[in-house]
Fold each of these.
Amino acid sequence: MPSVCVDTNIWFYSLARPKSEEQAKHRAAQRLVGSLHTPVVTPQILNELAYNLLRKRAWSEADIRALSGDLLLRCRYLSPGPAWHEEASVLRERFKLSFWDSLLLASAQSAGCDIVYSEDMQHGLRADTLVVINPFAQS
């Protein structure tokens, strides 16, 4: 079974009450997240997710705490290491990624992930043995 990291946007679509135009992404994200065994999460993912659920969907702090507890039980939590920023810089330069996307890829590589599920990065992007998959991309 491949080791995977799920980007904030996929978690958001799976958890947030969808707007009408987000129904298909909501269902696809729920199916994907529900099928995964122990995906990797990082402080960046948890922080971005909490921020967006608070701001865009008016979740309560109690809801955020409960979600964080659930994700920490269900996922493999990986704290940043000292080499992440340098590796992220190399990835930014190599692939012209955003600052935050490069940190996510660096953390996924550090965790030994095979796949990063993300809507934000180029579908099919390969960084060494890591591949980015957009679960919403048309086949």
Note: The first strand starts at residue 4 and ends at 6.
Amino acid sequence: MKKFLENFLIGQMFKSKKFWYAVAGVLTTILSDTFGINAEEVNSILLSIGALILGQGFADMNKK
């Protein structure tokens, strides 16, 4: 039963747009030096991703 719940939760997580937006935000932060993105641009990108996550959260609340 525990294994089923773990697989179900991980499966749900990978289907979530909010999860993938958060992954993109983490990767943006980690790889910003590699791609030469300055701190102001990273901040703007992260604010945009935060807005996407909030918007998707509101959409998900109204879906049920």
Note: The mean pLDDT is 90.
Amino acid sequence: MQAVGDFNIKQQKRKKIATIVIFLIIFGIFAFWGGLQLNKWWQARKELIDMGFASNKFPFRMYTERELVEMGRWTVESEYYTSISTRTTPEETYAIFKQALIDGDLDRAVECFIEEKQNEYRDALIKAKEEGRIDEILKQLTEIYPRGVKIVKGANSTNMATYEVFIIENGKKISNPIPFVKDINGDWKLEDL
């Protein structure tokens, strides 16, 4: 009788071992699948972080459209950007620029340009002031006129507009296009002059 009892105990041990092995196999499959999914998620998130569309701090959240526009990383048409109301028109920016030159306030004149060009124009205006050419520049800056009244989207999805200034050179009136770009604050800035 004892042999039957030992057989039942051995059978129960085998069932327990088989149950544990099956459990470990199922657990291993789920752990492997979960690891693959986690790796796939991490690779996608890492790519977004590398491109600058997600935060590099846990929990690696996606930046909002506003944050992307403010960081200059928005490259497609943005509803947020187009909804920014205008604070300073191109005409006002141009008038501020001219008045700053008249007043000799080069810092204020430079602020009328887009951020990427400010250092370039600061150097150029300082050189012009040192050479005594500010009055010559002011004589050339006549009134500006919209060139085709259309405001268009630029390649970087900023609002852009081209105005026309007529420069008097050698007694002739010459048309010169002046591009303006609307910044994140709603101010139109000179892109070039």
Note: The longest strand covers residues 159-169.
Amino acid sequence: MAIKPFTKLSILLLITGIALGLFLTAQWRAKPSRVTSPVLPYTSLKGARDILQEENENLKKQISGLQDEINQSQELLKKSRVVSSASLDDLEKLKKQIALAPLSGEGVTIVLADSTASPATPDTIVHAADLRDLINLLWAAGATGLSINNQRVSAFTSIDCIVNTILINNARLTSPFEINAVGNQKQLLKVLEDPTNLPDIYRRRQLGLKFEIKREQNITIPAFDGSYTIQFAKIKE
């Protein structure tokens, strides 16, 4: 006996309803996949941070060791006289220019720090943007070498904010920040002491932000010990 079209539709709807019911039951019984304890992801991230910090310190030691080997090779070349002294002097100047060697000379020291008053506000704490503004201004004023809390600033240096710390050359730094600048002292002071060059910092200094400038007759800033890895953008053909 043939099944009427209406009966076929009823059977199809019945099968669909049963399948949907089974699916909803499985979903209701399934355990939630989210982490129920907030401590677990924090512990995992803390462990990853500690591992990365240890790796970073080991890489810095390797870089320092390689720089020592380069310096020793240069001394051997000087003694052997295979390369002229003028060429080696040019090499040393170049190394200082690209931050591969320590640099000394006259300049200024700037102290930028959070206000000691409480509660802290966005206007009374140091931001990564403040350090970037200072560094850019000092470069423009003719500084030949810069460092922040003994971290040499080079063309490869990034200054970023991570929660309440500032990341410079993969080193996590907190207030206070000491910026050392080697260069023409008069020129550096001229631009730093002009409030129109750093209007936001001078405004916030009135609210408690610490911003001090000191003359220095002889500053020594360390060599750059970060990564020189460059990521080139892909050029579309």
Note: DSSP finds six helices and eight strands in the chain.
